[in-house]
Structure prediction request, 371 residues.
Amino acid sequence: MGAQIVEKLRKKKEKIFLGIGRGYTIFDNMASSKIHELFIVNGLHFIPCFFLKQPDYNFSEIVRHMYWFQGREMTRYNILAAVDENIYGVRETNFNCGPDAMLSYHETRIFDIADKPYLTLQTDGHNSNAQFGTRAMANFEVVKNHKSRHVKLKELETVFKNTDDLKERLLGIPDMGTESAEMLVAVFRSAGYRAEVMPTKTPESEAYARKYLITNNCLPMHILFGDVFAWVHSKQREGFDPNNELAVFIPMAGGPCRLGQYHIIVKQFLDECSFNGVMIVNPAAYLDWENLPVSVKERGIIRRNLAKASIASDVLMNAQLSLRPYEIIKGSTDKFFSEIRKEFLTIVGDGCDFKKLKAFYEKVLLKNAGK
Prediction:
């Protein structure tokens, strides 16, 4: 039925508004604030996306690593609205977290490429929907004068490729807890790579996050994004050429948000800000880091040393947390472990030799256990 309605309207060259969202948003009057009624009473043609068969697009190169099932559904309908000359997307969303918040960046990019107006309404069960009527009609004023063009799927694809010159670049490691980040820097150094921990939650970092991201994203996304942009700009001020001399470490795994989309969204904005050459190093957990852009030998060194260093670092942390409740002078435990950690990181950076680690623990921990 939906396809027949669309076809009749298409023959009349009418503008069609496609409501895109989750089923419980679109079909629930409270959740949707009756958006459909606002279009109908104003004589506009509105149809929920679920009235149309879900397009069978392979969008793996358009919106990468989309983990959520409903996220994949909405992506296909978004692409349909972008490529169909008669259809215009109306994104209905609630609270806008999870897939909705991440999808918003992909949606913006897709419709920017298609050069097509796109309306997003975050309803959240408001008591009145008058404000949405104003937005819907303002959107229509743009749509009615819009001249659509034929858009090919190929145009919507993203370019996400890495170079093989990581050794010529400085690798920025996000703050994943000071101990973990510093350890990872040392691990990369053990394989002959230059790396440093990116400063975190600085005023500059917060400013970049506020400038580019929507407020619906989770705090970790804002922190990572802002830290990356602040670090890239700071290195540029120091004389680095970001596109040829910098790389950013953002690991991934088979999952949502932090595990699947952070590196993609960061890359999208870096490209838009003329930092398209900044390399994103995103080793995947489900690939056992096989996609790490280093030689086979170096990959083995990094994985082996990372495993040893992680266990050794946990031993240090456990010792620190076990001793701290019994300290006589407040802060003395943290100060002590902060000092000996420097020696630990030197051992890791020099190759993470097991005998040296063993000797380090015997000298530092056993000898000072009674102090």
Summary: The chain has two domains: 2-156, 166-364.
